Amino acid sequence: MPGAGADRVIVVGAGIAGLTTAIALRREGVKAEVFERRDEPSRLLTGGGFMLWHNAILALRRIGLDGRVAAVGEPIRLHEFRSAGGRRLARWRIDPKTESCGAPAIALRRSALNTILMEEAGDGVHLGARLASFEQDDDGVTAYFEDGRSVRGDVLIGADGLRSTVRGALRRWHEAPPRHAGYTAWQAITRLPGEDLVPTGTFFNLWGRGLRFLYCRLNEHEVYWDAITSDRVRDRFDTVRSGKRAVLAEGYRDWPAPIPQVIESTDEDAILPIEIFDRPPGETWGHGRVTLVGDAAHPMTLNLSQGAGQGIESAVVLGRTLAAGADDPVRALREYEERRRARTADMVNTSWWIGAMGRPRSALVCGLRNAFMRATFDTFAFRQSYSLMLDTDF
Q1: Which pLDDT belongs to residue 241?
Q2: Residue 277: enclosing H or E segment and its boundaries?
Q3: Is residue 57 within a helix (H) or strand (E), and if so which, with residue range?
Q4: Contact yes or no for 314/11 (Cβ under 8 A)
Q5: SS (H, E, C) the chain
Q6: Can you identify the CATH homologous superfamily of domain 8-177+278-389?
Q7: What is the DSSP string of 72-133?
Q8: How confident is the model at residue 136 (pLDDT cuts 50, 70, 90)?
Q9: Which of 128, 115, 125 is nearest to 47 (CA)?
Q10: pLDDT one-digit tens code per residue, 41-85
């Protein structure tokens, strides 16, 4: 294709995938600038806790950030599955996998990762830049922002999340809305010292009837938790008459310790209910000199804890592929899309299937599910999960 190579890349969105893409490109000697609609740095350094599994740390190693990121997280050594009655369904030992692949799995604050990425991206991040539209031709792409400025680049990358402006413009604003998963995640971080309540290094994953509860320690003082409520249960929660903490405390009152204590210890304002969406795989990510990365390309539910990890992987692959094919950026973008399509589709589909297991309320169905987990999760499911996780392409 005629025109210049990829000497200047425009990245729209300063989330995890967008910042990682810019850092990966700059490590390869390609000028990359990030344009973010939020206008205050503090608004970028927010968010609750989450997991980065081994594959994400290995991807960060490609751009020299694995050590810094691992240092701000708490290593996960056990992943324990239990029923709402407290019965153990499975227990995954994580240390052997950490040793064999050479990278830990960690729990951390999202803001801690964002801080590191923002520092690395440095003055390449421009705030208060809300994308209005873009135009591309044989020689490059022009991005137009709502404040009147325009920027010319060789490639434009949409890293602007689930409801991406870049994605919408590529499709001329004609596509199906994101797919609702049928449940809500009530996420929070609470101050709760004490190893006797929540031991360090174990990620707890409890399954009930239309309810789930995930929690782990982030550090000696803080615990991250997620209450996942299916629509059939959540619709009974009256947050008009009662606060979020009160309705969750009622919903989980009969669950085993320390879940009631974890909820009770949490400030009302710290609880953030998030509706969970994804998009079914198969849609085209880009055209010409424009492509997508992260949630703009392959949003997924939270059940594999791979949303951020796959965004990081895609960013690293995109940066390396585009730098290697800088003389023909259009071909390089299509190569990146082809490399990432199957892996991210597997993650999206597997995560959706796991989430569907948590939606039923029937005692019979949930009993059968728990029996299935007891029979398969320590063996088959563990092997399959790690086979999928560590089948990396970077």
Answers
A1: 85
A2: strand 272-278
A3: helix 54-61
A4: no
A5: CCCCCCCEEEEECCCHHHHHHHHHHHHCCCEEEEECCCCCHHHHCCCCEEEECHHHHHHHHCCCCHHHHHHCCEECCEEEEEECCCCEEEEEECHHHHHHHCCCCEEEEHHHHHHHHHHHHHHHEECCCCEEEEEEECCEEEEEECCCCEEEECEEEECCCCCCHHHHHHCCCCCCCCEEEEEEEEEEEEECCCCCCCCCCEEEEEECCCEEEEEEECCCCEEEEEEEEEHHHHCCCCCCCCCHHHHHHHHCCCCCCCHHHHHHCCCHHHCEEEEEEECCCCCCCCECCEEECHHHCCCCCHHHCCHHHHHHHHHHHHHHHHHHCCCCHHHHHHHHHHHHHHHHHHHHHHHHHHHHHCCCCCHHHHHHHHHHHHHHHHHHHHHHHHHHHCCCCC
A6: FAD/NAD(P)-binding domain (3.50.50.60)
A7: TSEE--EEEEEETTS-EEEEEE-HHHHHHHT---EEEEHHHHHHHHHHHHGGGEE-S--EEE
A8: very high
A9: 115
A10: 777 777 789 999 999 999 999 999 999 999 999 999 999 999 999
Residue 5 — very low, low, confident or very high, per pLDDT cuts 50/70/90? low
pLDDT in tens, 253-276: 999 999 999 999 999 999 999 999
**Going by DSSP bridges, is the β-strand pair 88-93/106-109 parallel, antiparallel, or unpaired?**
unpaired
For the segment 32-45, the average pLDDT, to the nearest whole number, is 87
Rounded to two decimals, what is the model's pTM? 0.95
Q: If we measure between CA atoms, which residue out of 364, 345, 362, 361 comes closest to residue 353? A: 345
Please answer whether residues 212 and 369 qualify as being in contact, where contact means their C-beta atoms are separated by less than 8 angstroms.
Answer: no
**Domain coordinates in residue numbering, the chain:** 8-177+278-389
- Determine the residue type at 213: F
Q: Is the dihedral of CA 104, 105, 109, 115 positive or negative?
A: positive
The answer to whether residues 21 and 313 touch, using CB atoms and an 8 Å cutoff, is: no
pLDDT in tens, 214-258: 999 999 999 999 999 999 887 788 778 889 999 999 999 999 999
Specify which residues 88 forms β-bridges with: 82
